[in-house]
Amino acid sequence: MCHSGQFRRLAGLRESDSHTIAARQEQLPARLSQRGNSRLKLILFLAVALAMIYLGVKVIPILVNNAQFQDAIESTARFASVNRQSPEDIRAAVLKQAQEVDIPITAKDIQVRGESGHVEIAADYSVTVDLGVYQWTLNFHPYAKNNPLL
Fold first, then answer.
1. CB-based contacts of 137, cutoff 8 Å, min separation 6
2. Residues 63/97, Cβ–Cβ less than 8 Å
3. Rounded mean pLDDT of the chain?
4. What is the DSSP letter of 109?
5. Cα 122 to Cα 134: distance, rounded to the nearest angstrom
6. 117 in a structural domain
7. What is the mean pLDDT of residues 106-124?
8. Lowest mean pLDDT among 30-34, 49-53, 133-137
């Protein structure tokens, strides 16, 4: 059997080298756990980033469609009194605009009030987004009115 001093001499190590090796061995578990923490943080960051991208792909088109529909009913309300449209004509125009931008709405969901040049249009609808593990229902309430000059 060799003693530790003899082993160091056989291996060509000095006394100071063995202290350095011992110190490194003591630090090794700490460094490995730090590496594990950084890997865990990276995995969590990537999971959150991918979830946000997935959510954006599912929800942003719905929000864009709602914004387009809101613009369309504002334009309809603005020109309805100039074009002397009846509430039924306005409702039909709004329904057509909703279908163009894939809004799930029916004629009964569209409320139109028109009195002496003043027009108000309101519509309520919901869109359910399937996120795989959760069904998220988005409720929209677009509203528009015109303010006649006289």
1. 126, 127, 128, 129
2. no
3. 81
4. G
5. 29
6. yes
7. 88
8. 30-34
